[in-house]
Design a protein that fits this description.
The chain is of the alpha+beta class. It contains 23 helices and eight strands. Helix 16 (317-357) packs across helix 18 (375-382).
């Protein structure tokens, strides 16, 4: 039996203006111009340039009153009493409402694949073997390795291209690709990659190359663990210098012949600061990049168009549709301009709060002066939601007298000292880095020893936290830092 009932529940919905503001807030300066260009192209009611508000002394009374009326809210209720206009009323230019925060997209290059395919043309393979080689090159990842098992590639060739081949034939073609530039390309693991590079150097006379190949082929596990004494004993070498020179040769080989994708991104991406913080005689001044404050206005011609329609026949259906369309574009332009202005205010407000919170750091640039600071601290100061601060901090950069930093650099958890004072985790990381930089590389400091030394400096820190911070600094464990 079905029953009818009423129920109440709260549901939060974002207005189109809020959605537009959120999206614009998370856009970095480098992308803002592109976003504005998109809006200018899609909305003819939006124009570049300052608002043209005429001074009363520069025109007659009629022109002045016309400009004043252009600033008033336009009313189209007369047109919309009893007609279905949902196709216009609900239309907005906001795109996907569920867009997530994203890193700035970086253009990638296919030059490695193109270079390998060009080299493939010189092998003179028949059509069948050419397709096998093409499949292998297509399986090479960005750093230059083939990590997909050859058995799987053989199966792909059979099921996708109808090419029957064997593991042996595929491996023989892979060996030919190993001869391509850059040296070490298409290796299946680091050991093979390094061996391929050494093979290019081996003329049978260079002792360092010979010993390096022996180390990789016979003592690879000992090499990765830096057990140099075991390597010397296993290879029965009397002179320690042979080991030292060979290892020095190995560590100067290229472990990523295809290039480091993350390094490529860092080089390709041009960082445009969103803020500038300058120290003028001890007074910190915060400025917003001028590219964040474009001059935009609502098109006067569109306003005039609306006013012209307003003087027409309000019962004409086509006229009503035209008025609704124009009104929607005018509203969209106003919303966009307001969102840009609100973006500017929010960015400045957030940056000023960060500078005030980290005042001592911005005066001197001393990392040890950074205070523990979390998103909630700034959100409380500026009276906004934590998610708003997060959007600003994750995608914006600031130029200081000490370099350019991403805002999230200034946020960190706190560690207490023996005196009860809270210090930034960045200060602890700096202390860890200094201890490791100054350690005896023949007897590097273990995490337990680092914990002991940090506790002696007054930091209340556990060994697992030391390990976590060391890993965040991309510093390997003690045994891998050992040197001869």
């Amino acid at each position: 039996m079905q029953k009818l009932g009423l129920s109440q529940h709260l549901q939060q919905k974002l207005s189109p203006q809020q959605i537009q503001f959120i999206k614009l807030l998370q856009v970095p300066t480098a992308e803002l111009e592109g976003r504005i260009e998109e809006e200018l192209e899609s909305n003819p009611a939006l124009e570049e340039g300052p608002d043209e508000i005429q001074d009363s002394t520069q025109g007659d009374t009629e022109d002045s009153s016309s400009e004043e009326s252009a600033q008033e809210e336009l009313d189209i209720s007369d047109y919309l009493r009893d007609d279905d206009y949902n196709s216009y009323k609900t239309q907005t230019d906001n795109g996907d409402d569920e867009e997530e925060d994203r890193e700035m997209p970086i253009a990638t290059t296919s030059s490695l694949q193109e270079s390998l395919m060009a080299q493939l043309g010189f092998l003179g393979l028949d059509e069948r073997r050419y397709q096998i080689a093409q499949q292998l090159i297509g399986s090479i990842e960005g750093d230059g390795y083939i990590r997909r098992p050859l058995e799987s590639i053989v199966n792909d060739l059979a099921f996708s291209l109808g090419i029957e081949t064997t593991l042996e034939e595929t491996e023989s073609i892979l060996k030919q690709i190993h001869g391509f530039d850059p040296a070490g390309i298409a290796a299946r693991d680091l050991r093979e990659c390094l061996m391929l590079q050494l093979e290019r150097m081996d003329d049978g006379k260079d002792v360092d190359v010979i010993v390096a190949r022996q180390i990789l082929s016979e003592c690879y596990d000992e090499f990765t663990r830096k057990h140099y004494d075991k390597i010397q004993k296993k290879l029965d070498l009397d002179d320690e210098e042979y080991i030292r020179d060979a290892i020095d040769l190995i560590i100067h080989l290229n472990p990523k012949p295809g290039g480091d994708p993350s390094a490529l991104s860092e080089k390709t991406q041009a960082v445009i600061p969103d803020f500038m913080v300058t120290n003028t005689n001890g007074k910190l001044e915060v400025a917003l990049n001028s590219r964040n404050a474009p001059e935009l206005r609502v098109s006067p011609s569109y306003i005039e168009m609306f006013k012209a329609y307003d003087r027409g026949d309000k019962k004409d259906k086509k006229l009503k549709e035209a008025v609704t369309f124009v009104k929607q574009k005018l509203d969209s332009a106003k919303w966009f301009i307001d969102a840009i202005r609100q973006r500017q205010l929010t960015l400045l407000k957030t940056m000023q709060a960060i500078v005030e919170f980290q005042h001592d750091y911005f005066l001197e640039g001393d990392e040890s002066k950074l205070r523990p600071m979390i998103l909630k601290d700034i959100a409380t100061v500026i009276g906004m939601d934590i998610s708003t601060v997060s959007r600003v901090a994750s995608s914006k950069f600031v130029q200081t007298d000490f370099g350019v930093f991403q805002l999230k650099y200034f946020f960190s958890e706190g560690i207490s000292t023996e005196s009860g004072e809270e210090v930034s985790s960045r200060g602890v990381k700096q202390a860890i880095r200094e201890l490791i930089d100054n350690e005896d590389k023949k007897k590097p400091l273990s995490d337990d020893k680092l914990e002991e030394l940090l506790n002696a400096k007054g930091f209340n820190i556990a060994r697992r936290t030391v390990a976590k911070y060391r890993e965040q600094l991309n510093i390997p464990v003690a045994r891998l830092r050992k040197e001869l």
